[in-house]
Structures are given as structure tokens and as C-alpha cells.
Specification:
metal-binding (chains A, B), binds manganese (II) ion, Peptidase_M20_dimer (chains A, B), Aminopeptidase, homodimer, 20% strand, hydrolase activity, acting on carbon-nitrogen (but not peptide) bonds, in linear amidines (chains A, B), five-stranded antiparallel β-sheet, Alpha-Beta Plaits, nine-stranded mixed β-sheet, Bact_exopeptidase_dim_dom (chains A, B), 437 residues, alpha/beta, signal (chains A, B)
Chain lengths: 437, 437
């Protein structure tokens, strides 16, 4: 009798621990070949020469990529929907469809002439996680959503994380409709030309719509590679501030005006670029400052420039030190303008606050790494991601995998099949666990 | 009898001097309003917002401008023809049509967002000179050709004086057919799309085709304005050398790579620009060096540049000192590349020899100024012109008029109606005298 009671107690205890702390998911068998093929096909929707990838929001390549993604999601038995800006949702319905869902995803737009993995790995990696969970017979409790975000990159409309910001309500309709691309095309025309004709409306998604959001992404730097560790778990995301500085002068004929009479705005821009470099070199491990866009007008060999315009991107996990770099550099830009007798105008494109990842999700991701015996490293993400904004509304976590040489936003951006496979395994395990939490 | 002989002798002597040294042309009455209206209409054929003028070779605006010019020439009773590259010739036949003709003209293409007078004044001013000579009953002995040159500016195909170089045979067909614009359109496609479908052929125009060439042009600097002198007579034309320098680095993500690990080609370009400025500031009255075209690739705010490409335009009347500036600056560019661990490539777009204007023509222009009681100044042209190449084959001269603030290649380029009128008067007188020489 005592034995029977003990047996009964042990049985109940096991059942309880199985369902909570020691919840166990069958190991998945990731089909890495299939995933990489999908990535490569998606990479073909590009306005430029492969392997350099250019896929701007609402371009014809973007439109084609959207059709491809929707077809892939539907082929895997997911129900697909989208919102007015074109965030695409592919749902694997759980046994408790009314419970807040678990979501995973990333973006599929690119900068100009960029790489194959940035963003797309988080979209197609989430699909592969779902496919491989289905293949081992896993059944989710909470539904699992794959989100393919509209435009995380700044390449078309000059602002980042457009889709995720719209989703969480941190981008107003007024801001959206004011956007224009460099050809003067406004956001609404572009959106509608891509087939998204529903009215924009303020986000109605409440904080309990998702119980968790997890994004798989390449590291875009070489810490994991240097340490030989396959998985990075993000603790914080550094956030960017973007400014535009333009200097203007009278121009003139390249043959006529003597050098000592010139008021050349490009020389002002050059002087600024070198002074900015000196400023951030004082603290190279923290502040990042980049001049990525340079436009000199009119741009003729025979004309002294009349205008030079730069983008100034500053990133830090520490908002204060980011602001200090901004203040010092804009002061310097103005001093250079005075000295060179050119005018200067600055505009502030955006500043986002840094984000902290959710401790509970980090814990689940650590458990998931252990389930597969993967070493992992907790680290800061200096690039920003849709997770920066998803974290403002939902508990959020990010899984990083190494990429070759830490290179990203370049055509030779590369992640190995093994690293991709490991990242998807950790993601699958994490999503499965979160769907029962 | 002695009186009669003396009278007879004096009569013959007067006749002789009238026909040679003291050849006299009736003063013309320039219709400045008509000329300025023509200039403004021509300015409407522009791909951009007036008053900024953009008319690139073989563009639809150029094609429309050509139709307009041909119609104007024909309306004035001139016989119009053109060559395979689209140099347009409008001939006023003289009483001795087999004698080498006198020619006057300039270009009608522009840089990007440029002014109304550069080039066009020399085309329509020559037409006004011819119209006003016709109106006072003047009849030329040598025929007078107005030449509207195809593309003096570098704005579409990257080389200057394309039309005049083709005309004098200093631009080979092999060089021409290799040209591509920045969109990759080749010269032959562009030429044919503009309606010039005849085969290109090497220049058949011999040195005795024209006895003289005279170009009317705005000064593009402010010496005449500063001195309050209405007419400049050019003695020498400084000639340009154009190079392209490109630095390349690995690029990378703006958030990831710390400043001390970057190999940023735009910072190399900036450092070069400032060192070039220092170099030419040592001798600001002679060397002119200009970075007018700057292209940074990929040009995204979130990506460290992978490439920065500059145009380097150096001009001097002294070929040796021009070469010295080139040598020193390219050495510096290479040193910067080594220091910053970026690669560098340079290409040599062109170098032209400086030109000396013809003494006999300068003498005729001086006489013409005196005929109208205009003060004049002999000066050097630092900008180059079609005259730089016409001078390689024909005796050549240039008449400058002041332009406001010396500004050129900018939308507010301006020459006053009075100055325009005086320039055309001197041109008309000069052409008339040259047609009898
Ligand atoms: Mn990115
Ligand atoms: Mn990304
Ligand atoms: Mn010009
Ligand atoms: Mn000109």
C-alpha cells in the first residue's frame, strides 16, 4: 500500500514536472538544404546583380518576394494574413487558439547591394522551425505566428523598422503618410502600388496579443566567430539616432574660381567626416558613428559643389553617450560651416531608445541551448532589429548565429549551413517551449 | 593738271585703304530683346526646374533644342546642315562662296542645373550678329557659318568638347563608340535615338575650310566686372586634365564595426580632398583643382561605405605645373590608401593642351572694339571652350563679356542686356571684317 501510494505520488510528480519545468520537446531534424534553397530563391528577387541583393520596400522585387513567401507559408499549412502596411502573418494554430500567441520573424527587405541572410534568415528560419516541429509531430498549445515584417531597413523611406513600428503603434499614420522616397514617391502611392489598399489605422494589437516574440538573426559582427561559439543570446539592443547634415555654398566654375576664394561645401563635409572619426576614436568600443550616404550636388566634374549632404548615424546602448556624440559632432559641423563660409542645415531623422530583452525568454533560450548541448554567449546587439520595437510591447528575445568575418550588408555576407541549422534548432525548441508557457 | 593727278592719286589711295586696313562696316543695331527672348526659349528645353538648366547631349530636351535652333536659323535665311555627331552648321553664303569661310559659335548643352548663358550666348549671339548685319545691308565676302556644337560639357559622356573635337579630328571614332553614360547607355545608341543615324567618319574638314573661328562667351569669372570693362579678348585658354580616383574597402554594418577597425573609403576620400585643397592653396592664382563629382557606394545610412569615387579636375595655362599638381595629389591619394588600408584605383579621363589665340584675329577684335569705342581687356580663359580645339586647326579668337559676380554653371548665372549687346556688336564687326580678310 505504501509502495502503491509512493508510486502514485511519483507518477503525479513526474507528470507535473514534465508539463512545466522539465517540459520536453522532441529534437527536430532541421532540413538545412531546404532552408538554404528557400533563402537563395528569395535572394533572386533583387534589383541588382546576385550575390549583391537590393530589395526595397514595395518595389517590384519586394512584391514578387511577398508572393513567394505567402506561397511558401501556405504550402506548409499556415494561415496567412497581412495588415495595411504589408506585415505578413502566417499562423500555426495551437490547441488553445484563444491564448496569446508566440511569434517569431524578421524582415525581408534589404539595403542597397546587401547580403542574403540579414532579415531573411529570421523569416525563413522561423518557417523551417515550424516545418521541422511539424515533422516530429509537435503540436503547439499557444498558436505560433511567423511574422515577415515590412521594411526594417532605411533604404527606401529613410526610417527603420517601419513594419514593426506600425505593428506596435510607435509610428503614427501622420508620420507614415509624410514619407517620401528619394524619387519623391510618397508612402501611400508606393504601398497601394504594391497591392496594399486597405486604410492605414492605428495599431489595435494589445500587449496580450503575443506572449513572446523571438527573432533569429545573423550576428552581423564577429564575436561568436572569434570565440567559436554557435549561439548568441541577446541581452540588449543598441539603438540608432540618424541625422542629415547639409552644407551649401555658391558653387562656381571649376576653371575660374581660385582655391582661396572658394566656399566649397564638399570640403566642409570632408573636414566634418575626419573630425567625427577623431571624436569616436576616443571611445571606439562604444560609440559607432557612420557617414553612409553622401550626396554632392550638382555632381559635375567641371562645377564646384554647391551642396554636400551627409547622413550621420550614431549608435550606442547608452542613450546619454549617444547624445553626447551627436552634440559634439553637430557643434563641430557648425564651426566648420562658419570657418568655410558655407551655410549648414541639419535635420533629425529619428532616435530610438535602446531595448532590453526579456529575462524569462532568455531563460527559455538558455534551456533550449542546453537541450541541444550548444554553447552560447550572452551579448549586446549593436545593429538594431524589429525586436527593438517588438520589445516595447511584448516580451522579446533574440537568437544570434555567427556570420563569416562578421560581415553584413555586403554581398559576401555568409552564414554556414551548420550555424544556420543550430540556430533553427534553438529557435524551434524555444518556440515549442514558449507555446506551452 | 597736277591737281587732277593729285586728286586721282588720293582717290585711289582712299579706295585701297578702305578695302584693307581701314575697312569699314556699318554699325549694327543689335536687337537685344529678341536675342534674350531666344535665349530664354532655349532655356525652356531643360530637364529640371527653371532657372536651373539641365540639357544633356541627345536627351529629349537636347533634341527639342536642336529642332528649335534649326527653325531659328532657317527663319533667318541660313542654310542648315549637320554632321554625324550633330554639330549644326548654319551658313550665310558670301559673295565668294569658294573662299574659306569664317565661323562663329559655341555649345548649347549644359552641366546639371546650370545657367542660361554658358554656351548658348555664343550660338544665339552669333545668330544675332548675322541677323543685325543683314539688317544693315552688310553682304559678306567669305561665307559666315554659325556652328552649334554638340556637347562641350562633360555632363553626359564624361568628356568635354565632344563636338568640336570630332570636327577637328582630335576624337577618334574608336574613342567615341566606347563612351557610355552613367546609365550605361552607349554613345551610338544615344546618338541614333536623337536622329543622327549617319555613319561616324573621321574628320574631312581641312585646315583651309575656315579662315577664322570666333567664339562669344560669358567670362565665367569676375575680372571684367571688377574692372568695369565690357569686353575681354582672350589670349590663352587654360586646359583641363581630368582623373577619377576610387578607394574601396570592405564596408560593414554601421552598428557593428568599431571605429578603430574600420577601413572606410569615404574617410580616405575626405582626407584626400583636404590635402588637395592645401596643395593648391600654395599657389591659388594658378592651379585650379576641383572635386565636383563624389559617389559613395552603396550609399545607405546604415552601411559603412565600400567605395568612394571622386572626379579630380586640374586646370592650368601651364601644362608643367598642371602635371606637378596631378603627380603630387595622386601620390598623396596613394599614401592615404596605404595608411587607411583601402585599395585605390585611378583612371585618366583626359588631358588637353592649353591653346593660344590667333594674333591676327585678336588684332581684328581690338579694331572692332575701337570701332564701337569699347574698352577691352586681354585676358586668359581658365574655363575651356570649343575654341580650345578649334584652335588646333583654325586661327581662333574669343570675345568675353562680364557675367554677374563671375558666376557660371549655376542657375543664377547672368549677363546684362547691355553687356550682351556690346558683345554681339564686337562679334558682328569682327565677323564682317574677317569675311573680307
Ligand atoms: Mn540590416
Ligand atoms: Mn536585419
Ligand atoms: Mn560650361
Ligand atoms: Mn561654355
Amino acid at each position: 500500500m505504501l509502495n502503491l501510494q509512493l508510486f502514485y505520488f511519483l507518477f503525479l510528480f513526474s507528470l507535473l514536472t514534465f508539463c512545466t519545468a522539465n517540459f520536453s520537446v522532441p529534437h527536430v531534424s532541421v532540413n538545412t538544404e531546404r532552408l538554404i534553397e528557400d533563402l537563395k530563391i528569395l535572394g533572386q528577387f533583387s534589383d541588382g546583380d546576385y550575390p549583391g541583393i537590393t530589395r526595397l520596400l514595395y518595389s517590384k522585387e519586394d512584391k514578387a518576394a511577398r508572393r513567394y513567401l505567402v506561397a511558401l507559408f501556405e504550402k506548409s499549412g499556415l494561415s496567412v494574413s497581412w495588415d495595411p502596411v504589408g506585415n505578413i502573418f502566417a499562423r500555426w494554430e495551437g490547441s488553445d487558439p484563444r491564448a496569446p500567441a508566440v511569434a517569431s520573424g524578421s524582415h525581408f527587405d534589404t539595403l542597397l547591394n546587401a547580403g542574403l541572410y540579414d532579415g531573411t534568415l529570421g523569416v525563413l528560419g522561423a518557417l523551417e522551425a515550424v516545418r521541422s516541429l511539424k515533422e516530429v509531430g509537435f503540436e503547439p498549445k499557444r498558436s505560433i505566428d511567423i511574422i515577415a515584417f515590412t521594411s526594417e531597413e532605411v533604404s527606401r523611406f529613410g526610417i527603420g523598422c517601419l513594419g514593426s513600428r506600425y505593428l506596435v503603434g510607435s509610428l503614427s499614420i501622420e508620420e507614415l503618410v509624410k514619407l517620401k522616397d528619394s524619387d519623391g514617391v510618397d508612402f501611400e502611392s508606393a504601398r497601394k502600388s504594391c497591392g496594399y489598399t486597405e486604410r492605414l489605422e492605428d495599431s489595435k494589437i494589445s500587449e496580450d496579443f503575443y506572449s513572446a516574440f523571438v527573432e533569429l538573426h545573423i550576428e552581423q559582427y564577429h564575436i561568436l566567430e572569434d570565440e567559436g561559439i554557435p549561439i548568441g543570446l541577446v541581452t540588449d539592443i543598441a539603438a540608432p539616432a540618424l541625422y542629415t547634415i547639409e552644407w551649401k555654398g555658391p558653387g562656381g566654375h571649376a576653371g575660374s574660381v581660385p582655391s582661396n576664394e572658394r566656399q566649397d561645401p564638399f570640403l566642409a563635409a570632408s573636414e566634418f567626416a575626419l573630425s567625427l572619426e577623431q571624436l569616436v576614436l576616443r571611445d571606439p568600443k562604444n560609440s559607432r558613428a557612420t557617414i553612409g550616404r553622401v550626396e554632392v550636388y550638382p555632381g559635375s566634374a567641371g562645377a564646384i559643389p554647391r551642396s554636400a549632404r551627409l547622413s550621420l548615424d550614431i549608435r550606442d546602448i547608452n542613450e546619454e553617450s549617444r547624445t553626447r556624440v551627436k552634440d559634439l559632432s553637430l557643434e563641430k559641423a557648425a564651426a566648420i560651416a562658419r570657418k568655410r563660409k558655407v551655410t549648414m542645415e541639419t535635420s533629425h531623422n529619428y532616435s530610438y531608445p535602446p531595448a532590453r530583452m526579456d529575462q524569462r525568454i532568455i531563460q527559455v533560450m538558455e534551456d533550449s541551448c542546453r537541450a541541444y548541448n550548444f554553447r552560447y554567449l550572452k551579448l549586446v546587439s549593436r545593429p538594431f532589429h524589429d525586436s527593438l520595437f517588438m520589445a516595447t510591447k511584448f516580451p522579446t528575445g533574440m537568437i544570434f548565429i555567427p556570420c563569416n568575418g562578421g560581415k553584413s550588408h555586403v554581398p559576401d555576407e555568409y552564414a554556414s549551413p551548420d550555424d544556420i541549422s543550430h540556430g533553427v534548432e534553438v529557435l524551434a525548441e524555444t518556440l515549442a517551449r514558449l507555446s506551452y508557457q
